[in-house]
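README: folding subset

This subset contains proteins for which both the sequence and a predicted C-alpha cell string are available. Records are stored as plain text. Below is the entry for Dihydroneopterin triphosphate 2'-epimerase (116 residues), shown exactly as it appears on disk.
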Amino acid sequence: MAQIKIKNLLLRTQIGFNDHEIGKKQDLLLNIIIDYDLEGEEVSDEPNQALNYRTICKEVIRLVENGHFNLLERVAEKVASYIISIDRVKSVSLEVDKPHALRFAESVSFSLTKTK
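--- output ---
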C-alpha cells in the first residue's frame, strides 16, 4: 500500500449560508491523503502505471470551484466520494479548511475519511 498527500490545495468556491456569504467566493484549503495499491510503478519508473495525482487534482478543483455549498461537510463528502471511486484507491482522508470563518480563529476545518 502506498500513499499520496496533496497539501494545501487552495480553491475558491461559494461556501456558506449566512447573508454575508451568499453569492461570494471564499477560499478553502484542502489537505488530502490517498491510500492506494501500487502496480509496479515504484520499480518500473513508468508514469503510465502511477496513480495520476494531477488528474485527481484537476477533478477536485472542478468539483469544488464549480459548486455551491452550504457546509464544509458537503465539500468533504463530494471530494471524498470522487476519490474513493477510483479503482486503486483503498481509502481517502481529507481536511477542508475555511480560513477566517470565525473572527478570532485562523480557520475552521472539517475532516472525513472514507474506506473501501
